[in-house]
Amino acid sequence: NAIRPKLQLTFNTFTVKSGEDLKIEILVVGDPAPKIEWKKEGQAVKETSRLEILNKASLTLLHIRHGVREHSGQYSVTASNSAGKDTTTITVVFRVTAKNSAGVWSVPSESITILAQDVIEAPTAFIDPTFKSTIIIQAGETFVIEADYFGKPLPEVAWLKDGKEIEKGTPKIEVKNTITHTTLTARDCTRVDGGRYVLSLSNSGGTTTISVNVKVLDRPGSPDGPLKVKVISAEKCNLNWNPPLNDGGASITHYIIEKRETSRVTWTEVEPHIEDISYKVTKLVCGKEYVFRIAAVNKYGAGDFLESEPFVAQNPFKPPSAPSTPVASAVTGDSVVLTWERPESDGGSEIDGYILEKRDKDGVRWTKCNKRRLNDMRFRCTGLAEGHYYQFRVLAENAAGVGAPSESTFINVRVLDSPSAPTNLEVKDVKRDSVSISWEPPLIDGGTKISHYIVEKREEARKAFTSVCSNCVRNSYKIDNLHQGSFYYFRVIAVNEFGPGQPAETAEAVKVSEAPPPPGKITLSDVTCNSARLSWEKPDHDGGSKIASYTVEMQTRGDNIWTKYSESKALEVTIDGMTAGKEYFFRVSAVNDKGTSEPKSLLTPVVVKDNSAKPVINLLNNTFNVKVGNDLKIDVPFKGMPLPTVVWNKEGNMLKETSRVTVQTSESASQVFIKDATRFDAGVYEVILSNAAGTTSAEIFVNIFERPGPPSDLSVEEVSADFVSLTWQPPLYTGGSEISNYIVEKRDIGSSVWQNVSATVARSSIKVSRLTQGTEYQFRVAAENRYGKSQYLETETVIAQYPFRPPGPPTNIHVVQASKSVMIIAWDKPDSDGGSPIIGYHVESKDQSSILWTKVNRSPVIENQYKVTNVEEGLIYEFRICAENLAGVGPCGKPSESVAARDQCDAPSNLKVTNVTNTSVSLSWDKPHYDGGAKITSYIVERIELPDSCWLKCNFTNLMDTFFEVSELSEGEQYEFRVTAKNAAECFSAPSETTGPITVQHDIEPPIIILDEKFRQVVVVKAGDVLKIDAEIYGRPNPTVFWLKNGRNISTKGRVEILATKSHTSLLVRESVRKDSGQYTLTVQNTGGATSRAVTCKVLDIPGPPAGPLEVSGQSAEKCTLSWGPPHENGGAEVLHYVVEKCETSPSCSHRPYGHPPQSLQSPGLLLRDESSMPQLPMAVKETCPLTNQNMHKRAEIRIPRNV
What we know:
Immunoglobulin-like; 11 domains; immunoglobulin domain; mainly beta; 6-stranded antiparallel beta sheet; 5-stranded mixed beta sheet; repeat
């Protein structure tokens, strides 16, 4: 786009002393380059020896040497191009002051009046269009950023990089400023020199900024730390790091890993080529201290290293704890099946396996049962001797070693016998007339299933046991109808099809008793100003053990602590020492040898005062408990003057009297009688007493006890092959008592017999294990409280099986990277994991000519890629993958494409679009950095039509060039392109990076010329050297190039050669001479417009001959005076001096009598001769001039008249 011209000048008025020099520099900005025109008083300025006008690329200069008053006046400068024009006016005054020989100065000449005031203009800056895009340079190169600026007053210039001001005068970065120009030069660039450079200009008129982005292609920085080291074992560790923050302008190809023992100074290479940002290091020496370091590598080399902290190679874990005690089953005459549970702690490392050991009961040496390490927690041990007792134990092993052995278990190897004694016989609960016991199945079931148990009891005074239950199918039993206070022994015998086994007996006698219930009614009487008398009734029973005493406690209102007042064996006590006016609470508890009963409270506080008229309720207990079906009596004694009226409410409503519910009230008490209590009689009762002195009320809580309702919401939460998890909600009705436990039973759907799972479940969930895979089961649950067991709640039938299946086949199996020794394959997860997380993959390979697949990995592969190292160079391989979950190994996926074990070549790089038309796109690219060990033989160009299409091949012939024009495209459509290389080994590279979306249309960009900085100044060369002007050109369509010299076309014949490509043009002049000096203009043109750049060249050569004629004057017999004019061409430099030679014609000799700068010379020493006989005396004048530190001379002969 064209830019309108602008002239920038700091001052518009110049006053100079006559005889001095004046230079006026004006900054010119515009594109294309403006035409400059100087005028004085409306007339074009004519250049003279004293007045010179010089026009450069962005500057025009008026130079007045030894100015006089005639040079004063109004000058105007006009800059114009196709975008417009700009004009500025300048006033120049030369003042003259005269001085005579006496040293007296005259009055200065007249001067114009100037108003001294500040002209404020905001700063403006202009920068070459090439800096508007990112500047890309190689490391070690130098880049220069230039800008012209203007402003009044003169702006302050500051260069910033990444937001921070650049210090001036640093060794690498140099900033030079003039009044209209600033230059930033960065030498020996590295990647840290890349970034965003900002030129900031500020004065009182404002601030303006221009930014330039610079990208330095260099080696990458160090990886982003920290370098994390995770110790796996004493020989292995994992390294993890992050990519470098600065990649040096190119993608990271791989990383280098090195290690060093801290006791050494040399580094050892661990992995020279790793593309991931993590690595597993092996073969470490236990106990050694190591340091690792990582360096990133791109195509420009390896960057700085990132070091880790020192660490010691040692195991981060310990051996596992002991497994559970092995459990025996399926005992035969020479074998036994043992099972066990995992250790509680794996020591921090996964369990690798188990070791099972045995020894004879009378032996001392343990021997291994398994030759190989066991991965399962079940083993069948064979080769046992019938009738022998054996001990077995299990040891777990992880990466740290073998852990502690489990507790041993005894096995008596015998064939089909009665069972051993049940284990863990315990007394669970003791009541006043019942005892609940539980046990576990015997360790030895005699080779057959336990059918039931026999429960027996005997009193301590007797020697014989009596049977309580002869067919108990659960592992617990409640023994009722025992005598209170008696001592009993209990035993349990397991029974199988071969008869009863050994009994298990309680170690000590159990006394049938319990803590007593709370005392009965509490009565308050004889209240005085400091004492009161309490009396109470005995509990309903003593719990099977004699009441030893009663504990009386008291509490002051507002205090939260109960204070023990006394222990009394009587049923009353007098409490002294109370404070008049205070209120007290009292409660009484019964004590026997089984413990203390719940306290019975006197709910209403006792006010220590005499004769209260307000009704007082003497309710000693506000809670009444009764079993369903029994009668309930609520007795509320009271006092009041006058006699209060009594009202009974239940749950906020007036209590209705029926045939079951009656209310009786006397002068001192009110009673409620309820016959055959039901669950609906439970609730909160309120008694309200009212008289003239006030109203008093009390709440009474009635609990009706019975067995609970069934549990609710019984559901199967989880089903597996050998267990089922059940959950349920507590009963909606608890029977007035807390649920003590739940009873869970199961049955095979083919049987009508329910088997006990557990009768002591405390929570509302259970995991039923030891199920048979494939069997259909039904489960039921009942709740139990102290008053009985609820009805059962049953589940639907459930089949014991895994809730998932093996996973599907992996997809998209392909070879990511192939070489002559290594292949990396990758794949996608299966579409279905079968309902269980995938625990690993199995990799198989085969030669293309083989039909047998070979497994590659020893253990399941966790990630979705695998590195195959055991390949043979030249063979063609195929790979297939299958996934595994807890249900097993799934089917294999579709095999990968056949890939040869050869080194792959790199992908082509730097793919770019060079031209776009309405039917074609021109591409170019660079060869691969690595050809895979074989010559690149062809390229394949592919395209894809966006948004939804597939990649299509563009070239159908062998393409050897690194450029290609894709034709027959649809106008207006968007395409992406990529290139693949192929080498002589028939190996294809990975596709290159795509070009990004390209729209097929006439892409018109006006032409741009980019010249090197040196061509903005006058280009000076020596005569005979090569004059070369280079320029980068850009434009779409490709522009046409024209070269002009001093406004005329340049002929390319002889010494002149013009070269032009799509992006570059150059003018080459060989063996330059003085006439090659001048202004060369480069013009480029396309349908988007035209632009030009001018370059001024000067060829330094020897000067031309002095201007003639050579005049001779002042002749005498011994001397003459010579005069001549300066040469018309000075060879590009000022004439230093002249050389005068003479030659006598007769002896043909020459002599240099004198060399002097003036243009006249008096030559002495001439011979006096007669004119007629005087020979012709030719004289030569030689002029010398400097040319690039050398003197070159040219001689021109001028004839001197004969009359000299």
